[in-house]
Amino acid sequence: MTKQGEIAIEFTHVQKKFSGKAVIKDLNLAVPANQIFVLVGPSGSGKTTILKMINALIQPNGGEITINGKKITEYRVQDLRWQMGYVLQQIALFPNMTVAQNIAVIPEMKKMPKKKIKERIETLLAQVDLPAAKYAERYPRELSGGEAQRVGIVRALAADPPLILMDEPFSALDPLSRTQLQKLVLRLQAQLHKTVVFVTHDMNEALKMGDAIAVVHHGKIQQVGTPREVQLHPATEYVARFFADTQ
Ligand code: ADP
């Protein structure tokens, strides 16, 4: 367990090439524990690649990544992934399983006792405003987009990992559901204090969600700061322009 003020994830001189083309260039980044850290930038800037290096879906070509002070290469991949919940834009719930069964997959793999899993499902569903009595036995096809995304968030939290990775989690939702889900994640975070890395192309969402924001452009970090710092004192012309364009 990491403490407030500690660095949970660190990238040092990380690079990644695809077919000889550098997509991530000399990336240095320190993600503080127990906060929401937003990677914001236009499509194609490298945000997802950075996120996928944290859960070892993508390996860097150079540099070093440490998670909770330990080099990523020293983890067993399964141990690494068990520390992380993953929420994607298109939430892939298993269509033949109920909501409760979908949420139980990882806790069961981790051999959490059945009774505890049931309690946890009920508590977490209540926290995302989907009462278990009404939703636990539904199938994914019986959920709206916003409800499915709430289940996706519960599934990521089910085994209580210290780290949550979110990749454009609300981008496919209608504006009202998006606003509701943003508020919900902020409310949950105020209780749970996870280390969250949140990817978005939307500067307004970044400002709303982030304790800290890193602006990414062409695989490089342009600026890291609090929403206020980035808003009031853009460090580069690019950040100023990106910010102006999204207002
Ligand atoms: P973002 O998440 O900011 O939209 P990505 O990290 O998905 O950006 O992509 C960054 C760049 O890397 C893009 O130009 C994309 O086309 C390229 N890219 C991503 N994944 C691959 C891959 N597996 N093979 C080749 N190119 C890739």
TrEMBL record:
As one GO molecular function, the record gives: ABC-type quaternary ammonium compound transporting activity
Instruction: Kindly state which keywords UniProt assigns to this record, in alphabetical order.
Output: ATP-binding, Nucleotide-binding, Transport
Superkingdom of origin: Bacteria
Task: Give its E.C. classification number.
Answer: 7.6.2.9
Q: Where is the ABC transporter domain?
A: 9-243
Signal peptide: which range, if any? none
**Protein family according to the UniProt entry:** Belongs to the ABC transporter superfamily.
- Protein name, entry field: ABC-type quaternary amine transporter
Which stretch of the full-length chain is present here?
A: 1 to 247 of 332
